Amino acid sequence: MSDIVFLNGSYLKKHEANVSILDRGFLFGDGVYEVIPVYHQTPFRLKEHLDRLNQSLSSINIEPPFNENEWLTHINEIITNYTDKHLSIYIQITRGVSELRDHLASTQKPTVLIMPSPLTIKFSELKPINAILLEDIRWQHCDIKSISLLGNILLKQEALSQNADEALLHRNNLLTEGATSNIFLVKNNQVFTPPKSPFILSGITRDVIIEIAQQYQITIIEKELTVSELYDADEVWVSSSSREISPVTQINDKIVGQGGIGAISKVMHSAFQQFKQSLLDSPR
Ligand code: PDD
């Protein structure tokens, strides 16, 4: 078995898959993407990821190249050829190849890539992280999962230079999200997260967390949160498809809450693991 990628209708070895220098993804960052976790060879929340992909495509006026069944066929082919049963599927769609580098040049068809990668964290791992707080320097359409990630990358680089794993972001003192994740905070046993808006990506993991919290009588309140509420929180965690739930135990020089992983973070992490397991146990 060898790892393969899907590129424009062909299954290829990763190092044999090439894209033209005139691809608008390469020249302009003109495209969108998705990252879908796969557990025990089963894509997690596939429909929701594909719905969000279609929304991103519609926002930038690209027709969806495949329907749900076609996506599933290609994704399954990659999963069954991958060396591990847990992985992450990266989908990228760009506007395609044009005749010359012109901002408005037209293209015949989009470029479609499906690529497997290892998962960032070990299966079911609960790993605390450090974060720093930075001003959100990104554009005003962070709800589109754009491949133009320069803002996110600069923020992550700044976090790394300060030995932090994630940058938590604010605009005019209001929290938005992490550079690669959504953010939750706990105060007096209540959980809060910033509401959906053009300033955050509507995370699939974020939605799952809100949904399953109800089963544990934990209500998650979606409201605008200030920087001082972040510093005052008893617990903080970030969520994403590659991190699942990662407790943030330090922000800049400040220890969050009592230090260590908080009680509600632990409950939510185990609820998330049980939810994953219940999907794997149910007939497919
Ligand atoms: N990023 N916000 C941002 C800016 C993100 O980049 C991500 C995930 C999220 C969480 O979304 P989800 O729960 O659907 O993964 C929120 C992915 C994993 C990435 O860029 O690799």
Describe this structure in words.
- The chain is built from seven helices and 15 strands.
- It has helices spanning 24-28, 46-59, 68-80, 150-161, 204-213, 227-231, 263-281, and strands at 4-7, 10-13, 31-39, 42-43, 87-94, 111-117, 129-135, 166-171, 174-178, 182-187, 190-193, 220-222, 235-240, 244-251, 254-255.
- Strands 7, 8, 9, 10, 11, 12, 13, 14 and 15 form a nine-stranded mixed β-sheet that branches. The chain has a six-stranded antiparallel β-sheet with strand order 2-1-6-5-3-4.
- A hairpin with a 2-residue loop joins strand 3 (31-39) and strand 4.
- The two termini are 24 Å apart.
- The chain binds N-(5'-phosphopyridoxyl)-D-alanine.
- Residues 35, 152, 177, 180-182, 201, 203-206, 239-242 line the site of N-(5'-phosphopyridoxyl)-D-alanine (PDD).
| CATH topology title of the largest domain | D-amino Acid Aminotransferase, Chain A, domain 2
- Using the alpha-carbon principal axes, give the shape: globular
State the helix count. 7
Ligands present: N-(5'-phosphopyridoxyl)-D-alanine
**Radius of gyration, CA atoms, in whole angstroms:** 19 Å
Oligomer: single chain
The biggest beta sheet reads: 9 strands, mixed
Mean pLDDT: 96
Q: What is the H level of CATH, i.e. the homologous superfamily of the largest domain? A: D-amino Acid Aminotransferase, subunit A, domain 2
Give me the count of strands: 15
Terminal CA distance reads: 24 Å
Q: Report the structural category.
A: alpha+beta
Unreliable parts: none
Q: Portion of residues in helices?
A: 25-40%
How many separate domains?
2
- CATH class division of the largest domain: Alpha Beta
